[in-house]
Amino acid sequence: MLTLTADDIRLGCRAANWREALALAGEELEAAGRTTPEYLQGLLDREAQSSTVLGNGIAIPHGTPESREHVRSTGIRVLQFPDGVTWHDDARVHVLVTIAAQSDEHLDILRHLTRVLDKPGLAQQLAEATDRDTLLACLSRTPATPKCDRDTLLLKVPASDTRELALTAAARLQSLGCVEPPFIASLVAQSPQAVGRGLWLVHATDGVTQPALAVATPAKADSALDGVLCLAGQGEDTQPLLEQIDHLLTQPESIARLSADELLARLAGEQANAVTRQVRLLNAHGLHARPAKQLVQVARQQSLPLQLRLLEGDAQAVSATSLTRVIGLGARRGQTLVISAAGEGAQAAVDALAQAIESGLGEAVTPLRAHDERKATDTPTQPVEPLETDTPIKAVAASPGLAVAPAFVMRLPELTYAATANDPDNQCERLNRAIDEAFGQLEALIRQAEGGEAGPILAVHAEMLRDDDLHQAAFDIIREGASAEAGWWQAIDTAAKAQEALADRLLAERAADLRDVGRRVLANLCGVAMPTPPDEAYILVADDLGPSDVARLDTQRVRGLVTAKGGATAHSAILARALGLPAVVGVGERLLTLDSGTDVVVDGERGCIVPAPGAERRRRLNQRLEQLEQLQARAHEARHEPASTVDGHQVEVCANLGNTAHTPEAVERGADGVGLLRTEFIFMAHSEAPDLATQRAEYAKAFDALDGLPLVARTLDVGGDKPLDYWPLPEEDNPFLGLRGIRLSLTRPEILETQLRALLTEAGSRPLRIMFPMVKDLAEFRAAKALVDRLREEIDAPDVQVGVMIEIPSSALLAPTLAPEVDFFSIGTNDLTQYTLAIDRGHPQLSAESDGLHPAVLRLIQMTVQAAHEHGRWVGICGELGSDPQAIPVLLGLGVDEFSVTSRRVPLVKACIRNLALSDAKSLAQLALQQATASDVRDKLEGA
Ligand code: PEP
Ligand code: MG
């Protein structure tokens, strides 16, 4: 999100006229590296369309959409003109908030500014500010945004007394993060107060993180109990919530009978007899200043006052004649505005405004399509060349193995539909039919999937379709003028968002199921068939797959995975490896030109696919499959043998685990130990931080099964892409570069201490290797190691080594300074690659390039090993690169002493090492180090 900081501000500017001021602003943006000089013309063109003055001494110059190509990076420059500048609309301006934005990020700034525009004396304060912080403070009174929306309504709760309803409402506010336990404690101690008309109020100020109002209505209402209002917060920020309460108290209906939409309307002050109309905003960049101005002008031409609110928003209506308030809604393309008015002529006035909005408020607009929001951020699609048949297509090897089967291309159909309709009965009928149809489809799929893993998931989908509340929510929206499609999708989206907001991660993940099932009904409404996986073995082909998609795969039938996007270290790839499915990712968008039913070879060993293989290729493929099977059988046979090269160099091959219960399986597969226990999974499996006894029991499972083999346990590694529900972290712009790994653990040393105590106590005399994640330098290592040293004074654990993970380039570069003090290094190539190449490991487009065989990463590994060996320390590899068949000889040649890989891969990695000679591996490593790019490395290795 675009935010204003003191560094963006320049004080004391002077300009003879508005053009000069604008030129200065353009120069500032350019000097800050935000724009090219051509952007100034965009600023001028925009002013020629209409003034960007917001009022109260502030103007917000920004370029036209056409000038966005001159924006290098989104940013703002604020220029203060103490003497003021007369703008071309005669307004006096003291501050220019000049925006260079590539999309509609500036709406956030705009929305933010509108909150301060009403401040009395603002223009003078802006003119007189003598330091940047004061000016910033003038511009950014950031009131805590009060929350009262669909999420805070709890309708028809099966509770019959006011306390129960109050606590249910409070629990919802807690799950939404608006309040913390002291708030609940305060409510428990008080009795709800009757405020009239069967409504009751509870109010507390302790433990409030965001002012909020929840409304709970009972399933069985009567005149004594119509609903409970639960208010959190105090002072100015709760003012809008108090107004909403007032609206409820002054309207005549029983709120327990109202639908969510009706209740939101009453909270917004709309009376039951008001004329309302919903209209979708189609403007590409939302309700920014120019269309907002038009809207206000149309509203002013009407004979009676019009109110406006966002259907998806916080139930606060604003006057449609107030420019700042209309902009303050922050409405974006695709959101629904609700217009309302009461009195004679209301219908005509509402219609006039609706029409103006529908026709774009002076801008050219295009209709919405299903999932338009997602489409809006996609780059325009170019015609793509189809894939050549019987030709290998190189991509990224994400999970080893070889398979051939017909493709099932998961292409989500494009669904187009009208947003509104004026025949609600017919629309409800259509929706009922589409739901019945979906039900029948799911039942057929459940029968087909019998015995497989997809069956239970489909059964959950069918159950979701039976949800009366969901149907009711959709019907309510339809009755307000939406089409069956729009009503249904809005009900699904709202329910999914509420689900996503739940603290329980597993429940939150159900939101994806809800959207899946919603899409099926939507497709039926649009008369489009949903892609249905075949009944027999297939290769799943998709644009991208999230970890939850992979976890939900029907492994009985899926033989392999191929995606257009994605990279080898994305968590979905790690999951594919854990499931033992060959996977190739990052093929590019041409992949989706493939037709379902076409045979595809997935070669997870070489990282390529072959569409429609010819007869000769099939013959060779069958040969390789046979060889692979034999190799696997031989590898399995020899799994307990050591991994020694033909010239007698021995390394260890251990298993990566996230669950200690899988240790016996790893040992059975021939692992020489556990080389990486991702202990965060143990923490994630509990709803609160596991205590000493719980952790000891977990670690005991590993030590017992290892029976004397070493356990390398990584201390808690959360933050970044690994959230922990009960350890909420402040929102960060770059969580991958923020509080994570050991940095985070050191902020709560008591948690780290309990973990270390559990590990050391449980180890006793058994071999324990402790390593700290994401260590950037010696200072962090020392801070963490001090805890271990202190505990070892009281706990007798003689066979303990303490090391660090090398996954930040700084720690590889500084390995010579770390090596004297650590016992070992373990290289986390997933993160090391991410941070070296500056490519997010889960990035949908870029992570395909995030290849650990990049020579830059290899050089860091070389430096690490050299430093370690000079001090007699050992080095392991625990990232995914360790199980890449092309990388194994290189890593061996670089001197790596231990490979820790997915437990399934242990026998094969051992077998691969047994086939190598250390001397050859060293030459390959040298060859790889001399290359310039990752693909050069792979090409050379292939040819060697
Ligand atoms: C790594 O970064 O390589 C690693 C092993 O840690 P994780 O994948 O758990 O981040
Ligand atoms: Mg890591």
From TrEMBL:
Catalytic activity of the protein: L-histidyl-[protein] + phosphoenolpyruvate = N(pros)-phospho-L-histidyl-[protein] + pyruvate
GO terms, molecular function: phosphoenolpyruvate-protein phosphotransferase activity
Main location: cytoplasm
Co-factor requirement: Mg(2+)
Top-rank lineage group of the source organism: Bacteria
UniProt EC number: 2.7.3.9
Keywords assigned by UniProt, alphabetized: Cytoplasm, Kinase, Magnesium, Metal-binding, Phosphoprotein, Phosphotransferase system, Sugar transport, Transferase, Transport
Span of domain HPr: 274-364
InterPro entries noted in UniProt: HPr-like, HPr-like_sf, PEP-util_enz_mobile_dom, PEP-utilizing_PTS_enzyme, PEP_util_AS, PEP_util_C, PEP_util_CS, Phosphohistidine_dom_sf
Family the UniProt entry places it in: Belongs to the PEP-utilizing enzyme family.
Protein name from the UniProt record: phosphoenolpyruvate--protein phosphotransferase
Source organism (scientific name): Marinobacter halodurans
Lineage: Bacteria, Pseudomonadati, Pseudomonadota, Gammaproteobacteria, Pseudomonadales
Protein's gene: ptsP
